[in-house]
Specification:
Blueprint: E1 2-5, E2 20-22, E3 31-35, E4 47-52, E5 59-65, E6 85-89, E7 92-96, E8 98-101, H1 108-125, E9 130-136, H2 162-177, E10 184-187, H3 191-200, E11 205-207, H4 221-234, E12 240-246, H5 248-255, E13 264-269, E14 275-281, E15 302-304, E16 316-320, E17 326-329, E18 346-349
Parallel strand pairs: 3-15, 9-12, 10-11, 10-12
Antiparallel strand pairs: 1-2, 1-4, 3-16, 4-5, 5-18, 6-7, 8-17, 9-13, 13-14
Helix pairs in contact: 2-3
Amino acid sequence: MDFWQADDAGSYDNEGFRLRGHQFTDAEGRYRLETVVPGIYPGRTRHLHVRVQPANGAVLTTQLYLPGESLNARDFLFQPELLMAVDNTAAGPQAQFDFVVEAPAETQAKEQAKDESADIWTQLQQPQSAYFILMRHALAPGTGDPANFRLGDCSTQRNLSAEGREQARRTGAAFRQRGVAVQRLLSSEWCRCVETAELMALGTVEPFAPINSFFQDRSTEASQTAAVRQFMRENAAQPGVTVMVTHFVNIGALAGSGVDSGELVVMRVGEGERLGVVGRSRPSEPIHYGSPSLQTAQTFTQARMGAKSMGAARQMFFLLRGTPFVKFQRRFRTDRTSMTASRSRYFVQTPFVN
Protein backbone atom coordinates (compact mmCIF):
# COMPACT_ATOMS: atom_id res chain seq x y z
CA MET A 1 0.00 0.00 0.00
CA ASP A 2 1.23 3.46 -0.93
CA PHE A 3 -0.04 6.67 0.64
CA TRP A 4 0.87 10.23 -0.28
CA GLN A 5 -0.78 13.55 0.47
CA ALA A 6 -0.42 17.28 1.02
CA ASP A 7 0.50 18.58 4.46
CA ASP A 8 -1.96 20.56 6.60
CA ALA A 9 -1.08 23.69 4.59
CA GLY A 10 -1.94 22.01 1.28
CA SER A 11 1.66 21.54 0.09
CA TYR A 12 3.30 18.36 -1.23
CA ASP A 13 6.90 17.47 -0.49
CA ASN A 14 8.21 17.11 -4.05
CA GLU A 15 11.85 16.65 -3.08
CA GLY A 16 11.74 14.22 -0.16
CA PHE A 17 9.41 11.63 1.36
CA ARG A 18 7.50 13.64 3.93
CA LEU A 19 3.89 12.42 4.01
CA ARG A 20 4.70 9.68 1.51
CA GLY A 21 4.71 6.10 2.72
CA HIS A 22 4.78 2.51 1.52
CA GLN A 23 3.65 -0.27 3.82
CA PHE A 24 2.50 -3.88 3.80
CA THR A 25 -0.62 -5.23 5.45
CA ASP A 26 -0.46 -8.25 7.71
CA ALA A 27 -1.47 -11.71 6.49
CA GLU A 28 -5.16 -10.87 6.96
CA GLY A 29 -4.98 -7.57 5.11
CA ARG A 30 -4.98 -5.38 8.22
CA TYR A 31 -3.14 -2.09 8.27
CA ARG A 32 -2.96 1.04 10.39
CA LEU A 33 -1.63 4.47 9.48
CA GLU A 34 -1.32 7.74 11.38
CA THR A 35 -0.98 11.00 9.48
CA VAL A 36 -2.09 14.61 9.43
CA VAL A 37 -5.36 15.79 7.92
CA PRO A 38 -4.47 17.05 4.43
CA GLY A 39 -4.81 20.72 3.68
CA ILE A 40 -6.47 22.14 0.59
CA TYR A 41 -4.29 21.96 -2.51
CA PRO A 42 -5.03 24.73 -5.08
CA GLY A 43 -7.85 23.66 -7.36
CA ARG A 44 -8.75 20.57 -5.31
CA THR A 45 -10.71 19.55 -2.27
CA ARG A 46 -9.06 17.76 0.67
CA HIS A 47 -7.88 14.32 -0.37
CA LEU A 48 -5.35 11.54 0.16
CA HIS A 49 -3.81 9.40 -2.55
CA VAL A 50 -3.82 5.64 -2.06
CA ARG A 51 -2.53 2.71 -4.07
CA VAL A 52 -3.37 -0.87 -3.18
CA GLN A 53 -2.04 -4.04 -4.78
CA PRO A 54 -2.87 -7.53 -3.50
CA ALA A 55 -0.24 -10.20 -3.98
CA ASN A 56 -0.22 -11.14 -7.68
CA GLY A 57 -3.21 -8.87 -8.21
CA ALA A 58 -4.13 -5.70 -10.05
CA VAL A 59 -3.22 -2.22 -8.78
CA LEU A 60 -5.98 -0.04 -7.38
CA THR A 61 -5.18 3.69 -7.47
CA THR A 62 -7.60 6.00 -5.71
CA GLN A 63 -8.06 9.19 -3.74
CA LEU A 64 -9.92 9.52 -0.45
CA TYR A 65 -12.03 12.60 0.17
CA LEU A 66 -13.47 14.20 3.30
CA PRO A 67 -17.25 14.75 3.16
CA GLY A 68 -18.77 17.96 4.28
CA GLU A 69 -16.06 19.89 2.45
CA SER A 70 -17.44 22.78 0.41
CA LEU A 71 -14.96 22.14 -2.41
CA ASN A 72 -16.12 18.55 -3.01
CA ALA A 73 -18.83 19.66 -5.43
CA ARG A 74 -16.33 21.61 -7.54
CA ASP A 75 -13.57 19.01 -7.64
CA PHE A 76 -13.65 17.32 -11.05
CA LEU A 77 -12.28 14.03 -9.65
CA PHE A 78 -14.63 13.79 -6.69
CA GLN A 79 -17.18 10.97 -6.63
CA PRO A 80 -19.72 10.70 -3.81
CA GLU A 81 -19.78 6.91 -4.05
CA LEU A 82 -16.38 6.89 -2.39
CA LEU A 83 -17.10 8.97 0.72
CA MET A 84 -16.00 7.55 4.04
CA ALA A 85 -18.48 7.02 6.86
CA VAL A 86 -17.83 8.83 10.14
CA ASP A 87 -18.82 8.02 13.73
CA ASN A 88 -18.28 10.47 16.57
CA THR A 89 -16.83 8.62 19.54
CA ALA A 90 -15.46 9.64 22.92
CA ALA A 91 -11.99 9.49 21.39
CA GLY A 92 -13.06 11.72 18.51
CA PRO A 93 -14.53 11.14 15.06
CA GLN A 94 -13.87 7.68 13.63
CA ALA A 95 -14.04 7.43 9.85
CA GLN A 96 -13.95 4.20 7.93
CA PHE A 97 -14.07 3.07 4.35
CA ASP A 98 -13.96 -0.44 2.92
CA PHE A 99 -12.22 -1.52 -0.25
CA VAL A 100 -12.68 -5.03 -1.55
CA VAL A 101 -10.10 -6.08 -4.11
CA GLU A 102 -9.56 -9.47 -5.67
CA ALA A 103 -6.31 -11.14 -4.69
CA PRO A 104 -5.78 -13.94 -7.23
CA ALA A 105 -2.69 -16.11 -7.43
CA GLU A 106 -2.67 -16.80 -11.17
CA THR A 107 -5.90 -15.76 -12.85
CA GLN A 108 -7.04 -16.03 -16.40
CA ALA A 109 -7.54 -12.26 -16.49
CA LYS A 110 -3.92 -11.69 -15.55
CA GLU A 111 -2.67 -13.96 -18.32
CA GLN A 112 -5.03 -12.34 -20.79
CA ALA A 113 -3.71 -8.88 -19.85
CA LYS A 114 -0.16 -10.09 -20.51
CA ASP A 115 -1.19 -11.48 -23.89
CA GLU A 116 -2.96 -8.26 -24.85
CA SER A 117 0.05 -6.17 -23.85
CA ALA A 118 2.37 -8.38 -25.88
CA ASP A 119 0.03 -8.15 -28.86
CA ILE A 120 0.04 -4.35 -28.67
CA TRP A 121 3.83 -4.25 -28.87
CA THR A 122 3.76 -6.66 -31.80
CA GLN A 123 1.44 -4.30 -33.67
CA LEU A 124 3.71 -1.35 -32.91
CA GLN A 125 6.82 -3.13 -34.21
CA GLN A 126 5.49 -3.26 -37.78
CA PRO A 127 2.62 -0.75 -37.84
CA GLN A 128 0.16 -1.18 -40.69
CA SER A 129 -1.63 2.02 -39.68
CA ALA A 130 -1.00 5.11 -37.58
CA TYR A 131 -0.77 4.55 -33.83
CA PHE A 132 -0.88 7.37 -31.30
CA ILE A 133 0.57 6.58 -27.89
CA LEU A 134 -0.60 8.84 -25.07
CA MET A 135 1.93 8.62 -22.25
CA ARG A 136 1.54 10.24 -18.88
CA HIS A 137 4.80 11.83 -17.80
CA ALA A 138 7.03 9.79 -15.50
CA LEU A 139 6.80 9.96 -11.72
CA ALA A 140 6.61 13.54 -10.44
CA PRO A 141 5.32 13.34 -6.85
CA GLY A 142 2.44 15.64 -6.03
CA THR A 143 -0.58 17.00 -7.86
CA GLY A 144 -0.88 19.97 -10.20
CA ASP A 145 1.67 22.76 -9.90
CA PRO A 146 2.69 25.38 -7.33
CA ALA A 147 0.75 28.65 -7.13
CA ASN A 148 3.67 30.54 -8.71
CA PHE A 149 3.74 28.28 -11.79
CA ARG A 150 5.20 29.80 -14.93
CA LEU A 151 5.48 28.03 -18.26
CA GLY A 152 9.14 27.78 -19.27
CA ASP A 153 10.45 28.12 -15.72
CA CYS A 154 11.04 24.65 -14.33
CA SER A 155 11.83 26.01 -10.88
CA THR A 156 8.15 26.98 -10.51
CA GLN A 157 6.80 23.58 -11.60
CA ARG A 158 6.34 20.09 -10.21
CA ASN A 159 9.21 18.08 -11.65
CA LEU A 160 10.34 14.49 -12.02
CA SER A 161 11.84 12.76 -9.02
CA ALA A 162 15.01 10.66 -9.31
CA GLU A 163 12.75 7.59 -9.59
CA GLY A 164 10.76 9.33 -12.31
CA ARG A 165 13.86 10.04 -14.35
CA GLU A 166 14.93 6.42 -14.10
CA GLN A 167 11.42 5.35 -15.06
CA ALA A 168 11.56 7.50 -18.20
CA ARG A 169 14.90 5.95 -19.20
CA ARG A 170 13.51 2.44 -18.71
CA THR A 171 10.48 3.26 -20.83
CA GLY A 172 12.69 4.46 -23.68
CA ALA A 173 14.79 1.32 -23.35
CA ALA A 174 11.62 -0.80 -23.56
CA PHE A 175 10.76 0.76 -26.94
CA ARG A 176 14.26 0.07 -28.26
CA GLN A 177 14.38 -3.48 -26.90
CA ARG A 178 11.06 -4.26 -28.59
CA GLY A 179 12.19 -2.71 -31.86
CA VAL A 180 9.48 -0.03 -31.93
CA ALA A 181 10.51 2.98 -34.04
CA VAL A 182 8.93 6.30 -33.07
CA GLN A 183 8.02 8.51 -35.99
CA ARG A 184 7.29 11.63 -33.94
CA LEU A 185 7.82 12.41 -30.25
CA LEU A 186 5.52 15.19 -29.06
CA SER A 187 5.47 16.68 -25.59
CA SER A 188 3.46 19.01 -23.42
CA GLU A 189 5.44 22.17 -22.73
CA TRP A 190 5.46 21.37 -18.98
CA CYS A 191 8.99 20.59 -17.80
CA ARG A 192 8.14 17.15 -16.37
CA CYS A 193 6.79 16.07 -19.76
CA VAL A 194 9.68 17.52 -21.76
CA GLU A 195 12.20 15.86 -19.43
CA THR A 196 10.36 12.53 -19.68
CA ALA A 197 10.46 12.69 -23.48
CA GLU A 198 14.13 13.71 -23.55
CA LEU A 199 15.18 10.94 -21.17
CA MET A 200 13.34 8.34 -23.27
CA ALA A 201 15.75 9.29 -26.10
CA LEU A 202 13.46 8.12 -28.90
CA GLY A 203 13.96 11.09 -31.22
CA THR A 204 13.66 14.86 -31.44
CA VAL A 205 11.20 16.22 -28.87
CA GLU A 206 8.58 18.53 -30.39
CA PRO A 207 6.57 20.84 -28.09
CA PHE A 208 2.84 20.42 -28.79
CA ALA A 209 0.61 22.93 -26.99
CA PRO A 210 -2.70 21.01 -27.38
CA ILE A 211 -1.41 18.39 -24.91
CA ASN A 212 -0.46 20.97 -22.26
CA SER A 213 -2.14 20.39 -18.91
CA PHE A 214 -5.54 21.99 -18.31
CA PHE A 215 -5.68 20.71 -14.73
CA GLN A 216 -5.86 24.20 -13.26
CA ASP A 217 -7.84 25.80 -16.09
CA ARG A 218 -10.64 23.53 -17.24
CA SER A 219 -11.97 26.17 -19.64
CA THR A 220 -9.53 24.96 -22.32
CA GLU A 221 -10.30 21.24 -21.99
CA ALA A 222 -12.77 21.03 -24.87
CA SER A 223 -10.67 23.02 -27.36
CA GLN A 224 -7.42 21.23 -26.51
CA THR A 225 -9.02 17.78 -26.65
CA ALA A 226 -10.64 18.61 -30.01
CA ALA A 227 -7.28 19.80 -31.36
CA VAL A 228 -5.57 16.53 -30.42
CA ARG A 229 -8.35 14.46 -31.98
CA GLN A 230 -8.10 16.53 -35.16
CA PHE A 231 -4.32 16.01 -35.21
CA MET A 232 -4.82 12.25 -35.01
CA ARG A 233 -7.36 12.24 -37.82
CA GLU A 234 -5.18 14.41 -40.06
CA ASN A 235 -2.21 12.06 -39.56
CA ALA A 236 -4.09 8.76 -39.66
CA ALA A 237 -3.21 7.95 -43.27
CA GLN A 238 0.52 7.51 -42.67
CA PRO A 239 1.50 4.29 -40.85
CA GLY A 240 3.82 4.78 -37.90
CA VAL A 241 4.02 5.45 -34.19
CA THR A 242 3.57 8.89 -32.65
CA VAL A 243 4.22 9.30 -28.92
CA MET A 244 2.62 12.17 -26.99
CA VAL A 245 3.92 12.78 -23.48
CA THR A 246 1.18 14.55 -21.59
CA HIS A 247 -0.85 14.63 -18.36
CA PHE A 248 -3.45 12.65 -16.42
CA VAL A 249 -6.36 14.99 -17.24
CA ASN A 250 -5.55 15.15 -20.94
CA ILE A 251 -5.39 11.38 -21.32
CA GLY A 252 -8.59 10.98 -19.32
CA ALA A 253 -10.41 13.36 -21.67
CA LEU A 254 -9.14 11.57 -24.77
CA ALA A 255 -9.23 7.93 -23.68
CA GLY A 256 -12.01 8.00 -21.09
CA SER A 257 -10.01 6.58 -18.19
CA GLY A 258 -7.26 7.54 -15.80
CA VAL A 259 -3.64 6.47 -16.04
CA ASP A 260 -0.71 6.15 -13.71
CA SER A 261 2.65 7.86 -14.11
CA GLY A 262 4.51 6.43 -17.09
CA GLU A 263 1.54 4.41 -18.35
CA LEU A 264 0.85 4.21 -22.09
CA VAL A 265 -2.53 4.30 -23.81
CA VAL A 266 -2.41 3.30 -27.49
CA MET A 267 -5.05 4.86 -29.77
CA ARG A 268 -5.88 4.53 -33.44
CA VAL A 269 -8.29 6.14 -35.90
CA GLY A 270 -10.80 3.57 -37.14
CA GLU A 271 -13.65 3.51 -39.61
CA GLY A 272 -15.56 6.72 -39.94
CA GLU A 273 -12.61 8.58 -38.36
CA ARG A 274 -13.64 7.24 -34.98
CA LEU A 275 -10.89 7.25 -32.36
CA GLY A 276 -10.50 4.13 -30.27
CA VAL A 277 -8.21 2.70 -27.59
CA VAL A 278 -6.23 -0.27 -28.89
CA GLY A 279 -4.72 -1.14 -25.53
CA ARG A 280 -2.62 -0.05 -22.58
CA SER A 281 0.85 -0.95 -21.40
CA ARG A 282 3.25 -0.30 -18.57
CA PRO A 283 6.66 -1.00 -20.04
CA SER A 284 8.86 -0.25 -17.02
CA GLU A 285 9.27 -1.90 -13.63
CA PRO A 286 7.20 -0.98 -10.57
CA ILE A 287 8.09 2.14 -8.63
CA HIS A 288 6.73 2.69 -5.12
CA TYR A 289 6.20 5.91 -3.20
CA GLY A 290 8.25 4.58 -0.36
CA SER A 291 10.36 5.98 2.41
CA PRO A 292 13.10 3.66 3.67
CA SER A 293 12.66 5.13 7.12
CA LEU A 294 9.13 3.83 7.49
CA GLN A 295 8.34 0.67 9.41
CA THR A 296 6.92 -2.41 7.76
CA ALA A 297 3.42 -2.91 9.10
CA GLN A 298 2.70 -6.11 10.99
CA THR A 299 -0.56 -6.86 12.77
CA PHE A 300 -1.83 -3.40 13.69
CA THR A 301 1.70 -2.05 13.72
CA GLN A 302 1.37 1.69 13.42
CA ALA A 303 3.69 3.66 11.17
CA ARG A 304 3.89 7.37 10.69
CA MET A 305 4.26 9.00 7.32
CA GLY A 306 7.45 11.07 7.78
CA ALA A 307 6.31 14.16 9.62
CA LYS A 308 8.03 16.60 11.94
CA SER A 309 5.47 16.14 14.70
CA MET A 310 2.10 14.49 15.12
CA GLY A 311 0.06 16.18 17.82
CA ALA A 312 -3.19 14.80 19.15
CA ALA A 313 -4.98 17.35 17.01
CA ARG A 314 -5.15 16.47 13.34
CA GLN A 315 -4.27 12.80 13.39
CA MET A 316 -5.68 10.10 11.17
CA PHE A 317 -5.78 6.38 11.75
CA PHE A 318 -6.44 3.90 8.97
CA LEU A 319 -7.35 0.29 9.62
CA LEU A 320 -7.46 -2.20 6.77
CA ARG A 321 -8.71 -5.71 7.16
CA GLY A 322 -10.62 -8.47 5.42
CA THR A 323 -10.72 -12.04 4.23
CA PRO A 324 -11.07 -13.96 1.96
CA PHE A 325 -10.98 -10.80 -0.10
CA VAL A 326 -8.58 -8.05 0.87
CA LYS A 327 -10.81 -5.45 2.47
CA PHE A 328 -9.45 -2.09 3.45
CA GLN A 329 -11.14 -0.27 6.29
CA ARG A 330 -9.83 3.19 7.02
CA ARG A 331 -10.31 4.97 10.30
CA PHE A 332 -9.20 8.36 11.40
CA ARG A 333 -9.76 10.43 14.45
CA THR A 334 -9.11 14.09 14.99
CA ASP A 335 -10.10 16.91 17.25
CA ARG A 336 -11.86 18.62 14.35
CA THR A 337 -15.49 18.03 15.32
CA SER A 338 -16.64 19.09 11.87
CA MET A 339 -14.70 16.27 10.24
CA THR A 340 -16.74 13.99 8.04
CA ALA A 341 -15.33 11.40 5.74
CA SER A 342 -15.19 10.77 2.06
CA ARG A 343 -14.36 8.38 -0.70
CA SER A 344 -12.71 9.07 -3.99
CA ARG A 345 -12.52 8.14 -7.61
CA TYR A 346 -10.56 5.00 -8.36
CA PHE A 347 -8.92 3.32 -11.30
CA VAL A 348 -8.07 -0.37 -11.50
CA GLN A 349 -4.97 -1.03 -13.53
CA THR A 350 -3.04 -4.10 -14.56
CA PRO A 351 0.37 -4.83 -13.00
CA PHE A 352 2.23 -2.25 -12.91
CA VAL A 353 4.60 0.71 -13.38
CA ASN A 354 3.86 4.16 -12.02
